[in-house]
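We give this protein:

***
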Amino acid sequence: MSVGTSSAPGAGRTGRPPAPRRPADPTGLGLDPDDLPDGLVVADEHGHVVCFNTAAARITAVAAADALGQPLEKVLPLEDLDGRRWWQLTDPYGGLAIRVRQPERNLLLPGGREVLVSARYVRAEPTGPVRRVVVALRDTEARRRTERSHAELIATVAHELRSPLTSVKGFTATLLAKWERFTDDQKRLMLETVDADADRVTRLIAELLDISRIDSGRLEVRRQPVDIGAAVGRHIQAYVAAGQPADRFLLRLSQPLPALWADPDKIDQVLSNLLENAVRHGEGTVTIDITPTASPREGEDAGTSVTVSDEGPGIPEESMNRVFTRFWRGSKRGGTGLGLYIVQGIVEAHGGTITVGRASGGGAEFRFTLPVATPAYLG
């Protein structure tokens, strides 16, 4: 990596090296260091900083103008987690001549702020003197958020699994030990409870698999023709069969609807989650509007929009931006809080969008829009 040079210490009449100019292209790739997402700090063969990009200034809270031309140790007074000065430990200019890098590690800036630091020692020839020290800086906050999210996921899963598995274990152990003491009706009740708890565990495992695929970008969408109106109708019929009054649901379709190619199982999952939220947490009539609309994806004209709204208390304004995050449950407890996160992942995997707002009746309103699209083999 060529980043230009600076004058040696003592050059000039003042005895201080003149502040080096930032090279127009220190990477040699036509890339400005300020375009890099990570902090980049480069020191010359004398240990003076010759490159200090915008991300480095943001992470360290040191202005580039104050860093350029200064000793690397002064600009980055890094310490390890034991309080030892990192540059004295690593000694890039006077250490082992065969060393070419320092692997990424957590270090501390003044004030105790933690950053991820890695370094590369550039030599003109093997075992030759160091000509450049290239330091990469990364803020640890994003990684910590990810670690916290994983920890929360593990804790939630452990909690959600404990209850049904305890029930399954308890009922099966009781039946095996005292089978003859129970009537047929008692046995049926216990087995139905075991069956329901097993379904609950299965759903949780399916949610975890979906989250894994969404986070890794591996959620597959198998597009087929989907009759979205008929799909919503099936969900309504299931609720009515389970005891919900038929007049609680209002389905409105605007015709003609464009042909929709989507993954029917995953669209069913989206509809199931949104309708369940409206029925369980909302009040009054649950209204489902299906309308043609502009496609959310560039290059396509048509799309299909589905809006699910209720007449309940709705979602507080301050919670709107957290609805599609993991573990959001609103004011009422229950469930894993993963459903809407998965719904958003499924919709976006189809190239669509989903929003939340307040319905005209005062309740919650979820609206997702899907491009018409086509299956891959017809694309």
The CA atoms of residues 43 and 50 lie 5 Å apart. Residues 1-17 have pLDDT under 50 and may be disordered.
